[in-house]
Amino acid sequence: QVQLVESGGGLVQPGGSLQLSCAASGVFFNSGSGAWYRQAPGKQRELVAVISRDGITTYKDFVKGRFTISRDNDKNTMYLQMNTLKPEDTAVYYCNLQYRGDYWGQGTQVTVSS
Q1: Rounded Cα–Cα distance for residues 46 and 38 (Å)
Q2: Confidence of residue 56 (pLDDT cuts 50, 70, 90)
Q3: Which end of the chain is more exposed for a tag (fewer CB within 10 A), N or C?
Q4: Dihedral, CA atoms, 38, 72, 54, 17, nearest 10 degrees?
């Protein structure tokens, strides 16, 4: 059974940093394509960043230069390093893995506020 468990969310001031983690069980993260999505209140879920099976990363324009997606194959964990956070980054962040199916974590709240 595939399970993705996120951690690392919280409250941070504008300009601060957070690192989200997504630990996988039942599947190897590097078997497929991993991604981070987010959903702000009243808005649709949107893609933030992707890391391919080959380790190629892509970002949406609104996080380019501020967020970094990565993967540790030994720990079977995907990360999202978020720097220079803005209030508009406030959302529930979800990790996703596409490999013979579409798997989601439970979500972790990130709140950027002074």
Answers
A1: 5
A2: very high
A3: N
A4: 40
